[in-house]
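In response to a reviewer's request, we include the raw inputs and outputs for one of the modeled complexes. The two entities were modeled together in a single run.
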Amino acid sequence: MDISNFLLMRQEIMLLSIVLLLIIAEIFIPNDKKSSIVHFAIFLFGIHTILGFVGLSEGSLFGGSFQTTKLVYFFKNVLNVGVLIVLLQSADWIQEKVVKENKGSEFFILLFSSLLGMYFMISAGDFLMFYIGLELGTLPVAALAAYETSKRISSESGIKFILSAALASGAALFGVSLLYATSGSIFFADIIPTITASNLTILGFVLFFSGLAFKISIVPFHFWTADVYEGAPISVSSYLSVISKGAAVFILMILLFTVLKPLMYIWENMIYGLTIATMLIGNLFALRQQNMKRFLAFSSIAQAGFILLGIISGTQLGATTAIYFVLVYIFSNLAAFGVVQAISLKTGKENMDDYNGLYRTNPKLSLVMMLALFSLAGIPPVAGFFGKFFLFTSAASEGYYLLVFIAAANATVSLYYYLLVVRAMFIRKNEHPIPFFNSKIYMRLGLIVSVIGILVLGLYSPLYDYIFELNGFLNQ
Amino acid sequence: MNINYIILVPLIPLAVFLLLGIFSHKIKPTVSGLIGVGGLLSSTILSFYAAYQYFFVFGKVGGVFQTFVEKTTWMNFTDTLHIDMGILIDPISVMMLVVVSTISLMVHIYSNGYMKGDEGFTKFFAYLSLFSFSMFGLVLATNLFQIYIFWELVGVSSYLLIGYYYTKSSAIAASKKAFIVTRFADLGFLIGILIIGYYTGTYDFVDLNNPEGNAILSWAATSFMGMSVITWALILIFVGGAGKSAMFPLHIWLPDAMEGPTPVSALIHAATMVVAGCYLVARLFPMYYFVDDGFALHIVAYVGAFSSLFAAVIAITQTDIKRVLAFSTMSQIGYMMFALGVSGYDGHEGVGYMASMFHLFTHAMFKALLFLGAGSVIHAVHSNELKDMGGLRKYMPITNITFLIAALAIAGVPPFAGFWSKDEILVAAFHHDKLIYYVGLLVAGLTAFYMFRLYFGIFWSKDTKYHHTPHESPLSMSVPLMILAFLSITVGFIPFSEFVTADKMGFEAHLNYPLAAVAVGVGAVGIILSWIFYKKENDLAQKWANGFGMLYKWASNKFYFDEIYLFVTKKIIFNLIAAPIAKFDKKIVDGTMEGIGNKTVLLAQKIKGLQSGRVQDYALFFVGGVVVIVMVFIYLW
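The model returned the following structure tokens for the whole complex.
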């Protein structure tokens, strides 16, 4: 094998190198200079992100276990940008809190390891690689969720996550074994021609699906979400809510549209039901939340329901709208989490009531939050509106009128609770509002990038066309 | 021939508007007045230069006045259908440039005196500039959509200026009324535009107006309710024009618009904006004439003739001098409208078209003069009511003389401007439609009568005792009066028919002596009657008014049209239609929605037990979910 073939894996190799570099840096940087590791890590990852956009070549490695296409590159770049924003938004927290406990570099090492797992999962060409990626993507997050060891709630969150994740990956692995049992191969390419809807295959498929549904927080595999988001550090919650979820959506879509296409008549109906359940449950629970992290957790469950709406149509158009929506969702959710993070870091306040009168004291922050929530709710002209609009049109064009109607009704419900936060910030009065504060440069940068994403995605249509082109191969 | 510089004519007032609008608090009133006048002066010079160039240098090629267009595509719809922005130069647009710039300049100068000391002096000039910009843009528009955009813009500036004294509730009501009524009419205009765009595939005036063009020739292709769709479109467009030009029954806003400052009334509600309706019909004249054998044009003619008579009758009974002038304006625009309506197309047949534009031109001069004169009077006695005036000729000689000239001009006394244009209109009507001719003749007599009633009432009549002795207005106000008086005498001698005609060829017009003599005679009767009634204060007029009884009462109440509109809107639309709908909305729609909302929250409360916080429960749900899904697909599907 030509050594240059490894260039196909260069993103994985680079990320791994960054992890190793960070381990070395951890050893050599003296204790009183440890906060510089933050700059170092962000700098390295920034370069990694930028390099991800150049020199893309398609191909496969290891006899087809690892494969990469333009679409896969695109996914990885999206994840990179998302992680970069997460890093920017958590930099202050790490410098102020984590470094003091002398575990700053571990945070990055764990986070990047998880991202590496996501890479492998997306690039997987067979179920083994997929499973390894899934595990690598999940396990470090459990450690991250329990990162604030001084807080009981954080440890609880870690425990809950690892237990649920173990169950989910167990189910996924069992499902994969059953699929192997019925088709005789773990390679996606070999499975496609042999797959038929026998009872065993259905059982295998549903089990396998539940493993991914766990990561996307699809009802009824979502219960961990709120508890973990609430307890975990906000950076980890936002990572879970966008990166982990986004990667799982990407691979789920690829698998459903290629390998599992013969089972479409099954997963179509299954997703139909799950979409409704997910939107409904997510929305109903979000209605009553007071804690902002829990609130965003349930909102992210409801958003997952909308994503499924794009997948269900099983067409190039549907895939494009789903990916576009995920993209929009990543920026919007990160902006919202960023504001929550900034406020929590300065004041320790995480409840909706604490946000009363925020506009009077922190107008810029309030505007960012408003924009993010408008985007999540789908109010024009921000990106979220187009995301939802395209999703609805793609589902409607395949004849899912009832589903679109239910989704629209759910979007209305979601509008209500998103506006609750806006009302708290802009309209409600507060005797003691959160005092004015200035965030540091990284946080500002993180918020600015998210806001630009929200605005530009809504107005810059060539990107949508680009995604559409990338999805060409799905339309077979 | 370079016509690009003409784009500056609208752009200069726009720049002035932006300058004055943005820095309104930083600029001293005197400076802003100078900026306003200076800007308009440059536009006026450019307009006159353009007119000279067009009419005497390059406009006429082979005996025909050419149409020049400079435009860029603004929005593309289909291959043929697109919206352009640009300037169109042809005889009527150049003529209108001259009219608008002249009157606007006079009003700008005059306002320096009239509005002196007003708090919003700079704002006033900003609005005036905005209006001038919009009006120039309207005149120069190359297509229906562009004219519509500027059409709305003049509507907005008119709204702003009528409501200029925004602390007065009557001014606010008047501005709203004007805006709503004209907007309502513009709805027709817009629908007409869309129909034209849909069926002819073009908005461009040059394409639309080509008598051999597709747009005109294809009129019979599609019909709706027994009439060509193009005819429908033209009628709808005329509805828009009728709204702007205060034609019956959309005239109700014009008298109320007199709440605005008097210079505004002179500029917008006498000389320029209100004639936009005539301009619109003239702009599309070939369409109106050729499509459906001019069916839509007949409507224009009869609406114009009726409005003309209707307004003249009301004008006799009004006591507010500005309202008299407002109804007079409506009446004269009716004149222009029916002149268009009775016009032919080729050569001398098109005398009505020529006469209409001619009358538009002369009317702008003497009506602006009348308004500015009235403004001068109001400035002196601080009242609009005739009863507060009288004997003012001793105090205000310049105003007196100039007002008299204008009155003579509008009454059609030779050799003043109005005589020439009115004569041509009556000639056109006489050859085309006798009924309209007699209406026109009657209106001519009424016009002379009410105008001299006004003149005598203000300047002669009784010797009113004034608290403050009235005095002549300052130079900034009297100079425009004198200039306009000069124009009111002279513009009638312009050989208009050689420049502005329907087929753009030009012809030589001759005075029709018998018809002219009849018209002058009728005018003279009107003047003599008002001499008897009003020269000296006496109760003769009151006796006659009592003699007419109901008719007089009806006319002085404007035939109760405001009341009819109020009845229709308040009693019928609000009470019978809007109120039940509002109730339905509140009870049924809102009720259902609130019910759904409450139920949703209730449901959310009920299911909160699911999220117990115990991981073992979560695992149970997880496995249960898998099992249920598998069962469904294996056994039920």
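As requested, we also summarize the result in words. The mean pLDDT of chain B is 86. Chain B touches chain A at residues 597, 600-601, 603-605, 607-608, 610-611, 613, 615, 617-619, 621-626, 629-630, 633-634, 637 (CB under 8 Å).
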